[in-house]
Amino acid sequence: SGQEYELRVAVQKAGGFDDVITALSNQLTKDSVAPAVSGLTILLIPGGPVRLSWKPLSPELGRGVVFEFELRLDGPGGCAAARRLNCSDCGRHRLQLQSEEARQRLEALTADCSAPVLVRAFEFGDASLSAEVAVSSEGASPRSLLPWTEYGASLWPVNLAGPGAVASASFRSPETRSGAVGGLRATPSEAEALVEFEEPRLPNGLLQAFAVHVFNVASNVCSQLLVLNSTNAGCQLPSCTTGGFLDLLSRTCASTQYVNNSGNGSDAYAVRVRQLQPGTEYSVRVTPVSQTLAGDSAELNFVTAGGDGGGGAATIVVAVAVPLVVILAIVAASLIFLRIRRQNRSPQKAAKPASDSPAGSGVSGAPNDYATVVGGSAQSAEYVEIPAVNGRR
Q1: 20 to 30 Å CA-CA from 296: which of 51, 111, 246, 353?
Q2: What's domain 31-172's architecture?
Q3: In angstroms, rounded to a whole number, what is the distance separating the alpha carbons of residues 156 and 163?
Q4: What is the per-residue pLDDT across 207-254, written as a single tens digit (0 to 9) for each?
Q5: How far apart are CA 85 and CA 53, in angstroms?
Q6: Burial classification of residue 180, based on how many CB atoms lie within 10 Å of its CB (0-12 exposed, 13-18 middle, 19 or more buried)
Q7: Residues 179, 194, 302, CA angle at the centre, nearest 5°?
Q8: pLDDT by residue (tens digit) across 154-184?
Q9: Contact by Cβ (8 Å): 129, 56
Q10: Distance between CA atoms of 173 and 154, rounded to whole angstroms?
Q11: pTM (2 d.p.)
């Protein structure tokens, strides 16, 4: 079945003979329901799309010319996506289905799907067929799947007889890059600092560890790397690359320590950074690491107590997205204050009365902490309670 035939009549056609020829031609070329495709496999790319591939059906195996496929993806909430994948070079075979019943069967396959098209690439070849579906790294999206989520794929070949038998496969979507940790803050003393943070709002996978880098701001050298295991630690993949990422990160620091979490709650983390120099400015960078990817980092600066730098205050630092012009205004105000402070400390102006010194700076106190998120969006972060300019952005 499914073969095409051409009938040639070499005699003068009598009245009504055209209808007989048409009916006979349609009967000879009528398709039947196609079998399920074979070799349906799913390739998961960390941080990338889901790639589905399968073997094509020849006209003999497909019981007619298979000119399109119906793809459906089901997630936790039901139908996540549906797409009709058309053959781009099937030409005249892209015809109407043979019957209204065939059309109704095809439409019923995805009647409950309201999601828009998710397939971003489709290759219709002679040796293999494939389709790619995007995976989101920014939460729920109408045009992509959620990361690290169970889905089921259903695929039907379609010929003139309508949809054929279904081929199915289930998979868990790959991890994508985690967002930065939240609530990053530091409480410094003279020789140590308590660093606290919370799990990312969008982990986009199963987090395994958090890498805490400690930098001396003046030398910009990583003095130590502290690694905290996540409360979700435990690889659920055939192979995880967490250890490889941590090994690469450790090569940039003078020492590496694996420490226990001293935070309260399943999503709260705390680590005590020791062996710090008094009156010194440090930078702490926290990077979440999942089974397959390193996420975005959050960073803050603090100054230990003692020495000439003061510092040591327990300050909570909050990162808030604001326009760049606000950041520039804050930096400009800090520069003005620094200049005024230096003038007030100069020997020539030490004897001047307080009324002669410039007023209105609105800033007082010792240097404080600030936080910013790196590796994320192009937005800046608001620096809370900055009385003076720190050495790094």
Answers
A1: 51
A2: Sandwich (2.60)
A3: 6
A4: 999 999 999 999 999 999 999 999 887 899 998 999 999 999 899 899
A5: 13
A6: buried
A7: 80
A8: 999 998 899 999 999 999 999 999 999 999 9
A9: yes
A10: 15
A11: 0.69
Dist. CA 275–CA 190, nearest whole Å: 10
Domain 182-381, classified CATH 3.40.1000.20, yes or no: no
Whether 31-172 shares its CATH topology with 182-381 is answered yes
Q: What is the overall mean pLDDT for the chain?
A: 76
Report the C-alpha gap between 189 and 314 in whole angstroms.
8
Element at 331 (helix H, strand E): helix 324-345
Q: In what order do the strands lie in the sheet with 221-229?
A: 256-259, 221-229, 207-216, 281-290, 297-303, 370-374
Q: Where are the domains of the chain?
A: 31-172, 182-381
State the pairing for strand pair 221-229/256-259: parallel
Contact, 50 vs 171, CB < 8 A? yes
Q: Half-sphere exposure of 278 toward its Cβ, with a 13 Å CA cutoff?
A: 6
β pairing state of 297-303 and 370-374 = antiparallel
**Cβ pair 190, 305 in contact under 8 A:** yes
Give the pLDDT confidence score for residue 323 in this predicted structure: 39
82-89 long-range Cβ contacts below 8 angstroms, 24+ apart: 82/109, 82/110, 82/113, 82/115, 83/117, 83/118, 83/119, 83/131, 84/158, 85/119, 85/122, 85/124, 85/131, 87/124, 88/124, 89/124
Beta bridge partners of 41: 53
Whole-angstrom distance, CA of residue 67 vs CA of residue 102? 14
Identify which of 258, 156, 275, 182 has the alpha carbon closest to the alpha carbon of residue 223: 275
In 305-320, which positions are buried (b, 16+ CB within 10 angstroms) versus exposed (e)? bbeebebbbebebebe
DSSP per-residue codes, 236-284: -SSS--HHHHHHHHHTTBS-EEEE----SSTTEEEEEE-SPPTT-EEEE
Q: How far is residue 276's CA from residue 189's CA, in Å, rounded to a whole number?
A: 9
Alpha-carbon gap, residue 323 to 157, rounded angstroms: 51
Q: Do 368 and 310 contact (CB within 8 A), yes or no?
A: no
Q: Which one, of 292, 288, 290, 316, lies nearest residue 302 by Cα?
A: 316
Q: Which tokens sit at 260? A: 């226990």
